[in-house]
């Protein structure tokens, strides 16, 4: 995930708004107690998600992949009055920790936290969405994109994380594992979708930002 020169990355962090205290504590606890803490969005990406959400001013957000709740807290900060964020995760073991931080961050009332298989939960989402954040199992990125697309308002956004996949997207296709192939297929799918505008930001492990322009 570390594509920037460490000195440049440090300069970027030093000139980015400080990580809020509640997120510092969540970051620390995730790294101390939870497997695969690199899955956490972290300071820079968290501030990017916060800024994008504040720019979009969504009424309804869908997040696919809650993990320990860091990105949900960042995204929820941009919700308009009366807005809601639905976040889905398959791992029930983290529920107590996630709910604790949602409460402490003061966003619990804005978040509908659902535990289960996103492939079966998403079809039941009735809200029209202004923003979708995909950060779950890579094999299903294209499936998640298809499932949410008709639920996204025209002019709404889909953001997908890890689309550079630690640089593995540059590997010879014959040497790619299934997750890398899935990410490449997703990136190509978006790139060839005439219904959207898109840009791949080399932030952390890559953010694909997609704006829906037609049905």
CATH superfamily, by name, is: Vaccinia Virus protein VP39
Biggest sheet strand line-up = 3-2-1-4-5-7-6
- Level-2 CATH architecture: 3-Layer(aba) Sandwich
How are helices and strands ordered from N to C?
HHHEHEHEHEHEHEE
Q: What structural class results from the helix and strand content?
A: alpha/beta
Distance between the termini: 34 Å
Question: Shape, please?
Answer: globular
Helix content: 25-40%
- Could you give a short account of the major beta sheet? 7 strands, mixed
CATH topology: Rossmann fold
> In total, how many domains does the architecture comprise?
1
Question: What report would you give on this structure?
Answer:
The protein has a single domain (6-212), classed as 3-Layer(aba) Sandwich (Rossmann fold). It has eight helices and seven strands. The protein has helices at 6-14, 21-33, 42-56, 70-76, 95-105, 118-121, 141-149, 178-191, and strands at 60-64, 84-89, 111-115, 129-134, 152-161, 196-201, 207-212. A seven-stranded mixed β-sheet has the order 3-2-1-4-5-7-6, with helices on both faces.
Concise overview:
Helix content is 38%, strand content 20%. It contains eight helices and seven strands, in the order H-H-H-E-H-E-H-E-H-E-H-E-H-E-E.
Helices and strands, with pairings:
Layout: H1 6-14, H2 21-33, H3 42-56, E1 60-64, H4 70-76, E2 84-89, H5 95-105, E3 111-115, H6 118-121, E4 129-134, H7 141-149, E5 152-161, H8 178-191, E6 196-201, E7 207-212
Parallel strand pairs: 1-2, 1-4, 2-3, 4-5
Antiparallel strand pairs: 5-7, 6-7
Helix pairs in contact: 3-4
């Amino acid at each position: 995930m570390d594509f920037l020169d460490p000195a440049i990355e440090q300069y970027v962090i030093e000139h980015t708004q400080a990580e809020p205290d509640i997120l510092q504590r969540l970051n620390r606890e995730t790294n101390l107690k939870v497997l695969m803490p690199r899955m956490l969005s972290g300071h820079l990406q968290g501030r990017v998600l916060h800024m994008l959400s504040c720019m979009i001013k969504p009424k309804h957000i869908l997040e696919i992949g809650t993990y320990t709740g860091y990105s949900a807290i960042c995204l929820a900060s941009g919700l308009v009055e009366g807005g809601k964020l639905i976040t889905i995760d398959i791992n029930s073991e983290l529920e107590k920790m996630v709910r604790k931080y949602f409460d402490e961050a003061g966003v619990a009332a804005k978040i509908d936290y659902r535990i289960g298989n996103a492939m079966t939960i998403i079809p039941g989402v009735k809200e029209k969405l202004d923003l979708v954040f995909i950060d779950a199992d890579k094999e299903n990125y294209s499936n998640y994109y298809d499932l949410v697309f008709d639920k996204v308002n025209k002019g709404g956004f889909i953001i997908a994380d890890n689309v550079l996949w630690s640089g593995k997207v540059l590997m010879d296709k014959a040497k790619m594992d299934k997750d890398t192939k899935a990410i490449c297929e997703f990136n190509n799918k978006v790139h060839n979708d005439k219904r959207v505008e898109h840009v791949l930001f080399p932030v952390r492990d890559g953010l694909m930002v997609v704006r829906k322009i037609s049905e």
